[in-house]
Write a structure and sequence with these properties.
2 domains; Quinone Oxidoreductase, Chain A, domain 1; 7-stranded mixed β-sheet; Rossmann fold; alpha/beta; 10 helices
Length: 333
C-alpha cells in the first residue's frame, strides 16, 4: 500500500510503499477513497501533541470500502461503503472520555494511506447523499461540533448562537448544524472573506474579532447570545463572557490561542453563565450526528482537495489557516 509517513518532527511526510495490511480479530481493512485533515495532524508534525510516537501515518478521517475482514467479523461487511469513527475507547461514561480514549492517526496508523485497519465497531455506513470527499470530511470535526452544539450546548430552536473563528472544520459544521436546528447564528473571524461566506450560508451577522470593541457592536445588534461555541480561548475569552446573555452557555472545544489571562468571575456568577468543556464525541454522539446529517442532508464544506502525493501541500495549507471548511486528500476521483 501507499502511505504518507511522519518519520521526523518538523519534517515533510514521506510517501512510502508498505506491506498491505492484515486484519486482526474484530478488524476490517478499509480501502480508502478519501481522507481529510484536522488541525491535530499539523500539531503532531510540529511536536505539539502529547504522546507522539514515530514513525506514524497521520490522518483521523476517512471513507472507503471494506476489502478484508478478520476473525469474528461477518463476511457481509465486505464491499460495504463506510466512514470511520476516529474516536476509540471512549468508555462507559457519556459525560467524559476514559483514560484509554485515543484518536486514530497516532498512535495507531491513520488514513493518509491507501488503506487503514479499523475495528468494525468504529465503522458506519457512508451517508448516501455524500460524495467520497464529503464523507471523508465529516467524522472528527463533525462529531466534535455535534457534541459542542447539542450534547453539551443543548441548543434549542430560536436561540441566538455565536460561533467564533468560523472557517475551521468544527466551526463550519457548528454553523451548519445551528442553522439547520433553527437558531440565529452570528460568527467571528479575522477574515472578511470568511465572514461573507458564513453570511452566504445563512449567518445573520459577522464580526472581525481583531477590531477593537467588536463585542460592543454585537451587543447593540443583534444583541446578547444564548450559546457560544468557541475553540480559541485566549484573551478574547473575556469578550465572550461579555456578549453571553444572562443564563447563557459558553462551550469550549479547544484553546488554540491559550488560556485567558484572567476571567471575570463576577460576571460569570452574576449572569448565571455556564462554562462547559467539550471534546470529540462518544459513540452515541457519533451515531446521533450521522442521523442528523442524514435526516437533513447536510453536506460538509470541502475547501480544497489534494492527492496523496501532495499531502505535504495540504499540511502547509492547514498551517496557514486560510481554508473555509475541510482540506481533503482524495485517493481516487
Amino acid at each position: 500500500m501507499k502511505a504518507l509517513v511522519l518519520t521526523e518532527l518538523k519534517s515533510p511526510l514521506q510517501l512510502a510503499d508498505r506491506d498491505d495490511l492484515v486484519p486482526g480479530p474484530g478488524e476490517a481493512i478499509v480501502e480508502l477513497k478519501a481522507a481529510a485533515l484536522n488541525r491535530r495532524d499539523y500539531w503532531i508534525t510540529q511536536g505539539m501533541y502529547p504522546g507522539i510516537r514515530l514513525p506514524v501515518i497521520l490522518g483521523s478521517d476517512g471513507a472507503g470500502v471494506v476489502k478484508r475482514v478478520g476473525d469474528g467479523v461477518a463476511q457481509d461487511w465486505l464491499q460495504r461503503e463506510v466512514i470511520i469513527n476516529p474516536g476509540w475507547n471512549w468508555g462507559d461514561r457519556e459525560a467524559f472520555q476514559s483514560d484509554e480514549f485515543h484518536i486514530l492517526g497516532m498512535p495507531d496508523d491513520g488514513t493518509f494511506a491507501s488503506e487503514v485497519r479499523v475495528p468494525v465497531a468504529y465503522l458506519a455506513a457512508k451517508p448516501e447523499h455524500l460524495s467520497w470527499r464529503e464523507a471523508a470530511a465529516l467524522p472528527l470535526a463533525g462529531v466534535t461540533a455535534y457534541r459542542a452544539v447539542f450534547t453539551q450546548g443543548r441548543l434549542q430552536a430560536g436561540e441566538r448562537v455565536l460561533i467564533s473563528g468560523v472557517g475551521g472544520g468544527v466551526a463550519t459544521f457548528a454553523l451548519q448544524y445551528a442553522l439547520t436546528a433553527g437558531a440565529s447564528v452570528v460568527v467571528t473571524s479575522s477574515s472578511a472573506e470568511k465572514i461573507e461566506k458564513a453570511i452566504q450560508l445563512g449567518a445573520a451577522a459577522g464580526f472581525d474579532y481583531k477590531v477593537e470593541a467588536w463585542h460592543k457592536r454585537l451587543l447593540e445588534e443583534p444583541g446578547p447570545v444564548d450559546l457560544i461555541i468557541d475553540g480559541a480561548g485566549g484573551d478574547g475569552y473575556a469578550n465572550l463572557v461579555d456578549v453571553a446573555a444572562p443564563g447563557g452557555r459558553i462551550v469550549n472545544y479547544g484553546a488554540t490561542t491559550g488560556p485567558p489571562k484572567k476571567l471575570d468571575l463576577f460576571k460569570v456568577f452574576w449572569k448565571q453563565l455556564r462554562l462547559i468543556g467539550s471534546t470529540m464525541g462518544s459513540p452515541d454522539d457519533f451515531a446521533a450526528m450521522l442521523a442528523f446529517v442524514n435526516q437533513h442532508k447536510i453536506k460538509p464544506l470541502v475547501d480544497e482537495v489534494f492527492s496523496l502525493a501532495n499531502g505535504n501541500e495540504a499540511i502547509a495549507r492547514m498551517k496557514q489557516s486560510t481554508q473555509f471548511g475541510k482540506l481533503v486528500i482524495a485517493h481516487q476521483a
